[in-house]
Amino acid sequence: MYNELGDYMKFDWLSIKEPLLSWYRKNHRKLPWRETKEPYFVWLSEIMLQQTRVEAVKGYYTRFLAEIPDIKTLSGIPEDKLLKLWEGLGYYNRARNLQKAAICIMEQYEGRFPVEYEEVIKLSGIGEYTASAICSICYDMPVAAVDGNVLRVVARLTDDHTPVDLPQYKKAVREQLERI
Predict the structure, then answer these.
(1) pTM (2 decimals)?
(2) Cβ of 47: how many Cβ atoms within 10 Å?
């Protein structure tokens, strides 16, 4: 996508939209967090899925929601119980950040998950990808959730050999995907 000068090269981005959507409709996995637009459920799944295989998350997700079904419960659960439910997923700061964000939601948003991207991304433990995933899935916002997998697929489809870990590559891909 970028030459040595960093100039964006042309590609017909619309040409990949329908083939990708068609592939997804035929091949996507049926997952509980894909059956909802409830921000708490989507948020929880996105945080659990960070650095963790989908198959491993399924059981944790169901058990976690049985014990902590909403933001209010998450905000008030004792940390030791929260971490016990998280046990086996690793990266315990993810669970701690979930609770910090839940407390913030209770205090600043009257217990309702924020609906603006700029507010979602301010929550503890939520970065650009997670905020985009939540906002696009739950609120139908035209924001692209771009992670390493998306970058690799786009690189293959566009026959682009730019290193996918370059920040300017990710930014350019995100901009293009948000246009379509």
Answers:
(1) 0.89
(2) 21
